[in-house]
Amino acid sequence: xxxxxxxxxxxxxxxxxxxxxxxxxxxxxxxxxxxxxxxxxxxxxxxxxxxxxxxxxxxxxxxxxxxxxxxxxxxxxxxxxxxxxxxxxxxxxxxxxxxxxxxxxxxxxxxxxxxxxxxxxxxxxxxxxxxxxxxxxxxxxxxxxxxxxxxxxxxxxxxxxxxxxxxxxxxxxxxxxxxxxxxxxxxxxxxxxxxxxxxxxxxxxxxxxxxxxxxxxxxxxxxxxxxxxxxxxxxxxxxxxxxxxxxxxxxxxxxxxxxxxxxxxxxxxxxxxxxxx
Length: 277
Description:
Structural class: alpha+beta
CATH superfamily of the largest domain: DNA integrity scanning protein, DisA, N-terminal domain
Number of domains: 2
Strand content: 5-15%
Shape: elongated
């Protein structure tokens, strides 16, 4: 009991700011990785750290303690490599928050152009009866899925999408992953949906589209090779029999809520006032 007052007496405004900064950093990191597969990695890392601390403090193992101390620098170097997608997303969010609504407006224009390109490509693929599976990455990272395919890192274009899904080419059976305005990878393998019901009667492409949208907030666009029907999957549900205009309309609607939530609070209030008038 005597230690508590002494600790409180040593606290000053600098110590409070120090504690708050550390708390904000940890909160930001946890927010960024929430909903991604990095959560499991972080949980496993924390379990290893706790077990290590308990073992070294209880049993006083000299050699084991030395091994832990020497391997700590290597662990600090490995963490940025393992969590590279999440750290990149953190920097992007920081840039988005500092850029304000101008950044959001520019991103909105880029995404709208990408949506029109995808809609035009899907129309051509449907007319030619060329099967296609296009996945648009959003907040949840798809790095594990990207690593199953072939890196492309090219700007989204109608010609490139038509080429990637041309029959008998090496990558036409897999999924194309799009991040913002970039085709990150092609020929990717997606998890199949495990949902019961009518979805069981769908083909492999449609079940893969449902599977990736069940495990993340991604949007998947499917063109049936047999019927040429265009479908869109989101949040574990699928909408079928779309044309170019309806596909673009639905994609724009799904992204509109995301853009509005990214705007600063004062700008959102101004938009609400303008709508009421």
